[in-house]
Amino acid sequence: MKHQRWLPWVFLAPTALGMGLFTLIPIVASIVLAFFQWDIITPPKFVGFANFATVATDSTVQVSFLNTIVFVIVAVALQLGISLGLAVLLTEKLPNWLRSFFRSAFFFPLVLSAASVSVFMKYLFNEKFGVVNWLLSLINVPAVPWLTSPAGSAVVIILVYVWQNFGFSFLLFLGGLASIPTETYEAASLDGATGWRKLVQITLPLLSPTTLVASVMAIISALQVFDQPYVLTGGGPGDSTRSAVMVIFETAFQRLEFGQGAALGVILTIIIMLITALQFRLSKRFVFYQ
Amino acid sequence: MTTTLEPRRTASPRTRPAARRRRIDWGMTGRITVLVITAVFVIGPVLWTLSTSLRLPSEAFSLPPSFLPLHPDFTSYAQVFQQLNMALLVLNSALVTGIVALGQMGTAALAGYAFAQLEFKGKKALFSVILATMMVPLQVTIVPVFLLIRGMGLSDTLLALILPALPTAFGTFLMRQYFLGLPPDLAEAAAIDGATPWRTFRSVYAPLAMPGLAIVGILAFNYHWNEFFRPLILTISEQNFTLPLGLVSLQGNMGTGSISVVLAGVILSMIPAFIVFIFGQRTLRTGLTSGLGK
Fold first, then answer.
1. Best of A1, A160, A251 to disrupt the B interface by mutation (most B CBs within 10 Å)?
2. What ipTM did this prediction achieve?
3. Contacts of B103 (CB under 8 A, 6+ apart)
4. What is the pLDDT of residues A136-156, one digit of tens each?
5. In chain A, what residues touch B41 (CB-CB under 8 Å)?
6. Same domain, B49 and B81
7. Measured between CB atoms, which of B129, B138, B244 is closest to A116?
8. Cβ of B259: how many Cβ atoms within 10 Å?
9. Is B41 contained in some domain?
10. Segment A206-217, tens digit of pLDDT
11. Domain that holds residue B13
């Protein structure tokens, strides 16, 4: 279509200006700020790499980043395993109404707010009055100090997170499974392949592009975990469930060390990018494209 | 003759399908059992929350718990409006979410149209930059955004939540895909009829892209109705809180005293999400999984 040269920029202006102002400039500003010490009140002071060096010295920062890595490994493994298993169970010949019932049920937590979910989960996991411990007492399990012990807190945060997020990978896997042609299975059946062999030798390889996407998205989102530990445990007991984003939040907005907070944000972003890049690298060996 | 008789004897058509059917039934039973148990784990906590919110505040902690509130009691629902400025929280959340959703539909439609149907220098480069911003986590921009909002004199206002959320990289990407699927001839036909470029967009292309716009709107609604991190940082006074923030602070203030009041608030805050779930589930599903994978 012929049009004036300035015309596209009228259409682009809201997005381009908004993103420039609230995304691109802040990215650059964050990187610059990471080299300064600034509390808004006194003038900023250039400190070189000192803000980055705290990662090596500050034990709270170290513990929080380590917690996050452990959380990502366990939560993402659970999330992908559960959602893949359920997606495989669901694609086999089930009545349609049952299929859509289960699909809706597993999808439901995705429309809720992670903060509100954490509010009611905190009540469910209450050591004395919570329904979880009450149910466990029925099978003679003594009251578990869910939110007052480091191990219990970690378990609850992982459970609550996976509870809310597995539906997303589940949807991705359902889509991936639907795209595997049924003829492939029929051919395998003719060759005498059983259910388990079909799963391992057909489903998993043909699903690997979906698995890559699902794992990249799951890892990126788990690395940014905040709402659940913030509401459920406040990072405690001690620092046992403090996450990387919690420490960024506390550094910048509670202790008003904006330079330090920016530096930690930059470090987290670099970790996210490195892990994503690594996944795509590895995918060249493990992902099978039709 | 003998060759056709032999297989019939070893695999009689009567017994084999029956045996297979029985075996499949067992597999099916196990399968459905696993799915049902999972569904109970997923829906159970929400139903439990609902049932607790309908009990008297004093009974919220009674053990053994009664699963069904025999006498539904709405005291907690009345109290949540007294103890928490529920009406204001709902209004704030609705304003922020509504304006952001409509705004994103607008900015994404405009930018997506430019990328799909208009010609300009640096199109590819600009589009790559926009795509790249999707990879940048919120945490790396939030400190400068906070300082910027403060500098603009907008800190502790609803605008602080709205303005930075108006442009959307994912929405732009999605709308570009939608407009790419529409034929460019439409624009030429409209131009011959004397339509201005704006009219061509407004009356010809935008209406055809409504399904895509619905996805952008519903995704924005789902995200911003539920978001917690930005409101926690960008609002300070309670009169500017959104629902999730208000509920978390209510829980903090009240300890575990009258949990059923907090849970009543949680249930109320879920209603819009539930409506989206009922009526927009397909759109939301498409949106969440679109643009990913192949």
1. A1
2. 0.88
3. B162, B165, B166
4. 988 988 888 999 999 999 999
5. 163
6. no
7. B244
8. 26
9. yes
10. 898 899 989 999
11. 2-53
